[in-house]
Amino acid sequence: MRTTGGAPPDDVEPAPIPLLEPREGIPPVIATDEALAEVIAAFAAGTGPVAVDAERASGYRYGQRAYLVQLRRAGAGTALIDPVGCPDLSGLGEVLADTEWILHAATQDLPCLREIGMIPTRLFDTELAGRLAGFPRVGLGAMVENVLGYALEKGHSAVDWSTRPLPEPWLRYAALDVELLVDLRDALEKELDRQGKLEWAHEEFDAIASAPPAPPRKDPWRRTSGMHKVRRRRQMAVVRELWTTRDKVAQRRDVSPGKVLSDNAIVEAALALPANVHALTALPGFGHRMGRRQLEQWQTAIDRAKELPDGELPQPGQPFSGPPPPRSWADKDPEAAARLSAARAAVSALAERLSMPQENLITPDTVRRVCWEPPHERTVESVEEALTAHGARAWQVEQVAPLLTRALSAAAST
């Protein structure tokens, strides 16, 4: 390992070695059931953990489906699978069910892998491992360079992976993404063990693997970029109608919603409340390049919002459970604000000693909830129970409960 825990090296590191070609060359893309059956047999006969990655077409296509799946395992080599030609990979998932999967930033890829039948029961997340080990840069390229001394070419990460056929340079890039994941995993496991954090990492990985699929987001239109400018309920209704119409069009055309209509255009229309298509055309995002039919479609959505009775208009803000924004605590509950200030300082100091981001030590939301409604008894045991109830892992509870107990007690005595 070149550097550990993000610490500067004692002397100048050698330049990273460019990794230009996969060891066995670029494998053929698997796009038929017959070829997939051969891959399943090969990976079932392989040994050790399996490196897994997926490429999506974010910004180009609707949704987050996988357009290429890459795998590598000792004894099986590397496979590049086209989920368009092979949309059901549950057979592959089944033969790998008892195998440890190595992913980088697992939570990004697991939803699209789950859609095609690839669901791990055990995993090792090299990005999360890097965070826990204290590396300041945890992207795959940075980790491979800092830990293994190789330079990955990352120029194709944001391309349209729904393109067919996939160009050879893209396939080379995709194969290289899993080329060294097993080596990276092994090196990070040793480093975590050296730092006494390996069991912590295993708890985190188990939590990711066992987490249920995220439920659909409530009122997703509220996340429109620039929404903070929209204050009146009638304007919010316009955002909702335009967002919903755009989403239906994007889904039907299988394109990214932003390519149908920008968030900025939606917000501008909501603020202006145009009376007709002519007024709409004058707004940013609804220029002359847009056809009459499209303009009428958007104006119809705006008119629907304008005609809604007051009782059907959306309410400002989202209903939420839990504490209010911290900026309002000093006015609402000065004692809670003092508890939060003491707790944040304690968590920050411990995270620095452990060389890891504060949010990996304990989520800020958990700290806020415990400080807003602390246990009646300010004991370590009661704080442990509160942290566990909010989803903290055992290692987090062990590390954080004592210092949070002291912070809550100190704030109460001032």
From TrEMBL:
<dbReference type="Pfam" id="PF00570">
    <property type="entry name" value="HRDC"/>
</dbReference>
<dbReference type="InterPro" id="IPR044876">
    <property type="entry name" value="HRDC_dom_sf"/>
</dbReference>
<dbReference type="GO" id="GO:0000166">
    <property type="term" value="F:nucleotide binding"/>
</dbReference>
<feature type="region of interest" description="Disordered">
    <location>
        <begin position="1"/>
        <end position="20"/>
    </location>
</feature>
<dbReference type="InterPro" id="IPR012337">
    <property type="entry name" value="RNaseH-like_sf"/>
</dbReference>
<feature type="domain" description="HRDC">
    <location>
        <begin position="232"/>
        <end position="312"/>
    </location>
</feature>
<dbReference type="GO" id="GO:0008408">
    <property type="term" value="F:3'-5' exonuclease activity"/>
</dbReference>
<dbReference type="InterPro" id="IPR051086">
    <property type="entry name" value="RNase_D-like"/>
</dbReference>
<feature type="region of interest" description="Disordered">
    <location>
        <begin position="308"/>
        <end position="332"/>
    </location>
</feature>
<dbReference type="GO" id="GO:0003676">
    <property type="term" value="F:nucleic acid binding"/>
</dbReference>
<protein>
    <submittedName>
        <fullName>Ribonuclease D</fullName>
    </submittedName>
</protein>
<dbReference type="InterPro" id="IPR002562">
    <property type="entry name" value="3'-5'_exonuclease_dom"/>
</dbReference>
<dbReference type="InterPro" id="IPR010997">
    <property type="entry name" value="HRDC-like_sf"/>
</dbReference>
<feature type="region of interest" description="Disordered">
    <location>
        <begin position="209"/>
        <end position="230"/>
    </location>
</feature>
<dbReference type="InterPro" id="IPR002121">
    <property type="entry name" value="HRDC_dom"/>
</dbReference>
<dbReference type="InterPro" id="IPR041605">
    <property type="entry name" value="Exo_C"/>
</dbReference>
<dbReference type="Pfam" id="PF01612">
    <property type="entry name" value="DNA_pol_A_exo1"/>
</dbReference>
<dbReference type="InterPro" id="IPR036397">
    <property type="entry name" value="RNaseH_sf"/>
</dbReference>
<dbReference type="GO" id="GO:0006139">
    <property type="term" value="P:nucleobase-containing compound metabolic process"/>
</dbReference>
<dbReference type="Pfam" id="PF18305">
    <property type="entry name" value="DNA_pol_A_exoN"/>
</dbReference>
